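Hi all, long-time lurker, first post. I run a small reading group and we've been trying to get comfortable going from sequence to structure in the token notation. Rather than ask abstract questions, I figured I'd post a concrete chain and ask someone more experienced to write out its structure so we can walk through it together at our next meeting. Sequence below, copied exactly:
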Amino acid sequence: MEQINNKLMNWASILADNARTQAERAASMPFIYPHIALMPDAHLGKGATVGSVIPALGAIIPAAVGVDIGCGMIALRTQFSADEIGVRGDLAALRQAIERAIPLSAGKYNSRIYSHETTARITELEQRDGAGSADEIAPNWRFQLGSLGSGNHFIEVSLDEEERVWLFLHSGSRGVGNKLAQRHIKIAQARAAADRITLPDPDLAYLVEGTDEFSAYIRDLRWAQHFALLNREEMMHRVADRVGDWLGRPVQPEETVNTHHNYTERETHFDKEVWLSRKGAIDASQGKPGLIPGSMGTRSYVVTGKGNRLALNSSPHGAGREYSRSAARKRFSRAQLDAAMAGIEWRKTDAFLDEIPGAYKDIDVIMEDSKDLVEVRHVLRQIVNVKGN
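-- Answer (accepted) --
Happy to help. Here is the structure in token form:
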């Protein structure tokens, strides 16, 4: 761990200069207490560095939560073994079945309600405070539930160190969460302008606890966080259905972990209650189950938190980008992507070139940097990868 200054602690051994400078700007905000914790996967983000844990007294920076509110991962351990997968074979058929069950890519949503479980999840969201905002800003949110998105979001079938089959996916609050986030970022920026507040970055505009704007943000934030959690549950339900159909008997979940990594909660740190925003970080309180995925084609980890006090009970949410999407497309070739994905069933397309493992930090380095933050319980290697363009 490196103490950059008295308001900024860093666990990233790989940290770009622009990310360090950005984190220093965020740490200079007057309400930060006790300090920002940079996770091992930290890299340049919008306003605040992705992979940062930001505790604030009486305020929240909406852009420091992120525009994909509630984005996170879910993993499910099944009763199946690698031998059963091997006997069935034809992983391409399984991948294609999953792709038919779940809308992929930005702007792709459902055309019908999948099941009675889907209806129950929609009803639950309709009854939560904040549903009115969702209806206003994205009236089709009900058809967004159970859709994956694009970018680094994924669905994977993996094997652990004991050759047990896991289902693993990463997604968030989709278009409705993005629109809610963008609305409140603009409200915070307008408030800063109206109050003539000078900011080191416009995306560090904040909302003050006790104001109507703050209350409205918390309401919409919590709704979007819950949407994201149920979205992952809905997709996992569909993936389990397809795996069960493919293997000839239903999936029996033996363990499930579902965790956010773009969210805010009220927590106590260093004897004060703060609004803690984890932007690209997970809760790693003592004994807390968590998930740290690698990049496309690399290993992922099922972990438990160690409750590191200085790290604000947090750990990284993945490998973290080392090259931007445009830079990755210039630096890497399709042949390199094919080589990185050898032995994995995936939809072979140039569209995923910016997701090549080389565009991300080395997951082995990330996990070494995280040894004081989490304990590794399972190491997963993917055998099927599903992504949206």
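A couple of things your group might point at:
The mean pLDDT is 96.
Residues 2-386 form a domain with the tRNA-splicing ligase RtcB fold (CATH 3.90.1860.10).
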